[in-house]
Amino acid sequence: MIRKIVIAIVYITTVGMYAQDGTVSPYSFFGIGDIKSTSTVENQMMGGIGVYADSIHINLKNPAAYGKLGLEVMDKEGLVTYTAGVSNKQFTLKSFTEEQQSSVTTLDYLALGFSVGNGLGMGFGIMPYSSVGYNFVEERTNTSGSLTNVYNGTGGLNRAFYSIGYEIIQDLSIGATVNFNFGTLESERLQQVEDIQFGTFDRRSSRVNGFDFNYALNYSPLIKGNKRLHSSIRVNTQGNLVSENDRQIGSFSVASGVTIEAVEVNLAAQNLSNTELKIPTTTTLGLGYGEDYKWFIGAEYSFQQMSSFENSFLGAESVTYEDASSFAFGAFITPDYDSFSSYLKRVTYRAGLRLDKTGMLVNDVDINNFGITFGLGLPLGRSFSNLNLGFEFGKKGTTRANLIEESYFKINVGLSLNDRWFQKRKIN
């Protein structure tokens, strides 16, 4: 069993390593890039909510959920859960005058969680945190002729994390996650004027790293017999990131693209060689109701003081920030998780929706994101392992004020594989 798990994880990792850039969104031009989902396929397909916790799935958004791992399914012998996910996202980018299509395939997460026993669980893993991947052209006309700016950006931040959760008393759990964020953000602007032989370039690079922490409290008592109330509060503390910056300006041949002259900018003289990026604290409140392993319905509300965010080195003049918020709704149903006669009755059916107010105002227009999600959890044999398939339709941005509207369709594939991490010897 373990050998099969390792082979599956190595395969998924290889797919992710050779995947395309993490995004093609023009909105990754702003801030630290396009913020990625930090949840498993199971949670993503319920609108991304993290209030629900059970004993056989890792919940990457809610560290208190690790206190439930292994309980009720492995007695006192412990459980180890491997989880990994990949996705393919099809984009349709539409302006007021034209439309383009593109796609990206990425490794979304790779994690391991295990039960230590007595209500204590731990986990660790890695995932992308943000992605930069834009390429767009801006054209202006003035008395000197036509002016063209070409903007390109690549890179992003990754996140390595370690989580611990503990059930203090029955149905009350606490948890914490430490996240280490690291990566490089790169941007380039090429500028050329009509009928001028040479153009100019401005290249910037930021090597970013830093920590943030996620704290969670879950309370999930039984009420009305076998029905359970789920509630949680999670606080993702301010991310204090340090950015080591470089900037190069120069000229190039418009005809050949060859660099003519390049100069390293003295950022130290401008106090920009090392800057701070502070990602504001996010607070999430969750509430749900359901019957264990059969059905669940829940909602979450998140808010973030994004108005305090600033990127003094890679900042853009056309963007301002205001407080961000998000509402998510999700549900699942498993007709009969223990059925011997029907495989379809053991399948878990999930659905949800979310509305994100990102906090970005570009050209004084709010940039919002709306998504509808649904998916299937397919059992693998008679074990607690499953293959999860998810789908999401969504739209971000608008064509107003010369902006871009993103319509997207996302396909997720995730594995949640379970085994005992130790067994007591039966014979000495």
Automatic annotation (TrEMBL):
- Looking at the record's lineage, which domain of life comes first? Bacteria
List the protein's name.
Long-subunit fatty acid transport protein
Originating organism = Maribacter spongiicola
